[in-house]
Amino acid sequence: LATAEVLSISKKLNEDSPEKILLQFKDQITAGNAVRKNHLGQVKAAISNKITSCILQLLQEATVKTAFTRKSFAAPECEMIPTEWVCRRIVTDSFLKRNRDDKEGYKFYPPKVEMFFKDDAGNDPQSSQGQLIATKFCFGELLIGQTEVDIMLFSEILEKSWLPQNCTLVDMKIKFGVDVTPKEIVLADVIDNDSWRLWPSVDGSQQKDKQPHQDLKEVIPEGLKMVKKELEWVAEREELLLKLESPCRMAVLVGSTSDLGRCEKIKKIKLRIKAECEGDGIPTVFVAVAGRRNGLGPVTSGNTAYPVISCPPLKQTGELRIGLGCSTTLSPEGSAQFAAQIFGLNNHLLWSRPQASVLNTWIFLKQVDKEIR
Fold first, then answer.
1. For every one of its 373 residues, what pLDDT tens digit does the chain have, with 9 covering 90 and above?
2. Which of 34, 188, 273, 307 has its CA 20 to 30 A from that of 72?
3. Please, what is the Cα angle at 41 between 211 and 201, to 5 degrees?
4. Residue 263 is part of which domain span?
5. How far apart are CA 3 and CA 20, in angstroms?
6. Whole-structure pTM value
7. What residue ranges in the chain does DSSP mark as E strands?
């Protein structure tokens, strides 16, 4: 039975947001397509809710469309597509059993994506895109065709996010649904410790996922205690995925003259600013806002190993000296985006935004292409 608190939240949602539904987690863990179910006390539901909320918040802030509204966890009503998409980076376990010629530990570049039809009675048989399209499913008044299948692709954002925690996301399973209000496909699955294989230090013997429970030949209290401990370990580190652990900085240098004869003066002032930025060890990108004939960008680039972006006013002309790694962009927005992409090489939160932007642009083009056919 639902608690009074859950009933209260459900009633509030029905009154204020009838298009939302309340997702309630269970204090149980399953194995073998739910053939085996074990109770984990009063902690599994709370921890799974915490992990799912963190993951979906991370994806949503990166502008990936998900069925997530707030930490309650309330979500838009979706009609689920009965498929499960599995993205694999490393060959292991079930994939190895089905593909005995492959070598354990082999890494896929890009990740290998497989699709399974959700059918517990049939043990979730492997399927294909062609079979899904031929079935002509319709959910939320949206016909699932080639365009919709193409949209249901895995993003590498979560894999990148776990790297600062010295953890490898070996593989992951996700499910999609159709948001019944805008009639669009969204990631509508619970993403918790049951959804992936997570290895600290690329060491499968230290796995922190659901697999230890799957491997239990006999369910005993000590075994469930170990599973609970691994679950809590993941939950503790989950919130770190949303934190910007490595600071970064963009220093904007402005030159008021385009006279090359003044370069020495600019250089002297610039070197002082550069020394201050380099002294604290914070990753920095310099943006030089001045005419290209001014020399601010090239002089900066010639005196630092940090990336330099030259952003001259429009209609400025001139050539840069050969041998200087000074990039040029004509728009302030472009220079900011370029700097963010550089920082994103070592910062998963900054990397995820342009990565999701590329994905969203691709989805938009697929949808436009479908409309004009």
1. 345 454 444 444 555 666 676 666 776 666 656 556 666 666 677 777 788 888 888 888 888 888 765 544 567 788 999 999 999 999 998 899 999 999 999 999 888 999 999 887 888 899 988 999 999 999 999 999 998 888 886 557 888 888 888 889 999 999 999 998 889 998 887 788 888 888 888 787 778 766 666 666 666 677 677 777 877 888 888 777 877 666 788 787 776 654 444 445 545 665 666 666 656 667 888 888 876 556 788 778 877 778 888 887 755 545 555 566 778 887 788 888 888 888 888 888 888 888 888 888 888 998 899 888 8
2. 34
3. 30
4. 249-343
5. 19
6. 0.69
7. 20-22, 28-31, 36-39, 74-76, 78-80, 83-90, 107-117, 126-127, 138-139, 142-143, 167-174, 176-179, 184-187, 196-200, 249-254, 284-289, 308-310, 326-328
Q: What is the CA radius of gyration of the chain?
A: 25
The CATH number given to whatever domain includes residue 212 is 3.30.470.20
CA separation for the pair 24, 73 (Å, rounded): 8
d(CA 242, CA 368): 33
What count of other Cβ atoms lies within 10 Å of the Cβ of residue 349? 21
Are 210 and 259 part of one and the same domain?
Answer: no
Q: What are the structure tokens assigned to 106, written together?
A: 């082999």
Q: What interhelical angle do 348-372 and 44-61 show, nearest 10?
A: 70
Strand-strand pairing, 107-117 and 126-127: antiparallel
Q: Give the integer Cα–Cα distance in Å for 208 and 212.
A: 8
Query: Does 348 map to a domain?
Result: no
Cis peptide before 182 (omega within 30 of 0): no
